[in-house]
Amino acid sequence: MIGLRADMDALAMTEHNDFAWKSGQPGLMHGCGHDGHIAMLVGAARYRLRRVILTVQQC
C-alpha cells in the first residue's frame, strides 16, 4: 500500500499582483507552492497507476 498526500489549502491574505495565476477568490492567496504540491501529487498518482496497469497487462 502506498499513501500520497499534498496540501491544497490557501492562505487567508489578499494578493497584490496581476499575475495570470492569481487566485480567483478574493482574500485567498496560493503563496506556499500548494499548486505545485498538487501537480506533483497528481503526477505521482498517474505514474503509479500506469505502472500498475502495465504490471497487470504483463500477467
What's the number of extended β-strand segments?
A: 0
List the helices and strands in order. H
Estimated radius of gyration: 17 Å
The computed structural class is: mainly alpha
Q: Count up the helices.
A: 1
Separation of the first and last Cα atoms: 20 Å
**Main sheet, how many strands, which sense, barrel?**
none
Principal-axes geometry comes out as elongated
Q: Percentage of helical residues? A: 40-55%
Residue fraction in strands: under 5%
Q: Averaged pLDDT, please?
A: 85
**Low-pLDDT windows of residues:** none
Oligomerization status of the protein chains: single chain
Question: What's the short story on this structure?
Answer:
It contains 1 helix and no strands. It is mainly alpha-helical. The chain starts with 33 loop residues before the first helix and ends with a helix.
Provide structural commentary.
The chain has 59 residues and is mainly alpha-helical. The chain has a domain at 32-59. It is 42% helix and 0% strand. It has 1 helix and no strands. It has one helix at residues 34-58. The longest helix is centred in the last third of the chain and has 25 residues, at 34-58.
